[in-house]
Amino acid sequence: MKSGNGSIKSRGKGKGRRWLWISLSVIVLLAVGSVGVAGYFYWSVKETASEIYQPLPSDRPRYVSSDKDVPAAAAPVETEKLNPFSVLLLGVDERQNDRGRSDTIMVMTVNPASKKVFMFNIPRDTRTELALRGTEDKINHAYAYNGIEGSLATVEKFIDMPIDYYVEVNMEGFKLIVDTLDGVNVDNPFEFDYEGETFPEGLQHLNGDQALKFSRMRYDDPRGDFGRNDRQKQVVQDVIRRATKWTNTSSLPSILHAIGDHVRTNLAFGELQDLVLKYRKNLNDIESTFVQGQGTMIGGIYYYIVDQTERDRIHEAMKQQLLTNFTEG
């Protein structure tokens, strides 16, 4: 189930949420890091930033890459120097009395020197060593066993690259954010029905629930994962477009409530402000790749196998983005 040009055709049972979390994470940076709002709104933003702030333990071991050219993670990033940074984005489907699993695992780098955002998704069924357990398993099980620390340590080891920040998002938050932004516009390439909703061919406007359904459908798409990825990108791009132009302060309480209930990050309020002010323009150029691999059954369980050559390719792509000459602050 391997496809060329760095793309994936995965047989995982997840509903393809990989692109959706980027949009919500962008809005976290835009809304919680917003400046220029006065009085009550400013303190509401600051309170939400405090609510979602969940730093990693101070005694957590920092990952050291086997590649001597790669520096250690640097949270907090020296934003005054406009240094590049990396983020682990986790889309988590939490359940009552259960922390759930990370349905979506994405890594993103932002580099002001190249003026690019680089991102890739790691399929949830990828078989690898869980860093805090020392056992081979699906990569999304790292969160179920050890939470964000387990996911971060496992992803860092998988790509042999330290990661500066994380943003963890619960699924329900995405729908609320899209609705707060008054929906999204998409251009559907063909008509299809999915989970009780009909999506006609052509231009249309979707609310949060419809946007999720539009992005999830795969099996009725003649292009499979490729078609679904294109639809997900459409949703993400319009969310980013709306978020970067968003000035409706009357809806700020709603968006802050959604963020406060469904997002956790180790980005503090001051860092969010700096990143929004100094890095926002980098959101216009997004480059993505897909991790190549092969689906297989082991002991009656489906896994996605990524060989070392492909892991090295991803490592080098990240390294190129993060080590591009820093711009002057």
How large is the count of helical segments? 9
What is the residue-averaged pLDDT?
79
Q: Which spans have pLDDT < 50 for at least 5 consecutive residues?
A: 1-21
CATH superfamily: LCP protein
The helix/strand order is HHEEEEEHEHEEEEHHHEHEEEH
Q: Major sheet, described briefly?
A: 6 strands, mixed
Architecture (CATH level 2) name: 3-Layer(aba) Sandwich
Structural class: alpha+beta
Total E-strand runs:
14
> What is the class in the CATH system?
Alpha Beta
Strand order of the largest sheet: 11-6-1-2-3-12
Question: What is the CATH T-level topology?
Answer: Aminopeptidase
Whole-number total of structural domains: 1
Keywords: Membrane, Transmembrane, Transmembrane helix
Protein name: Cell envelope-related transcriptional attenuator domain-containing protein
Family: Belongs to the LytR/CpsA/Psr (LCP) family.
Organism: Cohnella fermenti
Structure commentary:
This is Cell envelope-related transcriptional attenuator domain-containing protein. Keywords: Membrane, Transmembrane, Transmembrane helix. Helices cover 37% and strands 24% of the residues. It has 329 residues and is an alpha+beta fold. The protein has a single domain, classed as LCP protein (Aminopeptidase, 3-Layer(aba) Sandwich), CATH 3.40.630.190. The strands form 5 sheets. The chain has a 6-stranded mixed sheet, with helices on both faces. Strands 4-5 form a two-stranded antiparallel ribbon. Strands 7-10 form a two-stranded antiparallel ribbon. A hairpin with a 2-residue loop joins strand 13 and strand 14. The longest helix is centred in the C-terminal third of the chain and has 20 residues. The N terminus is likely disordered.
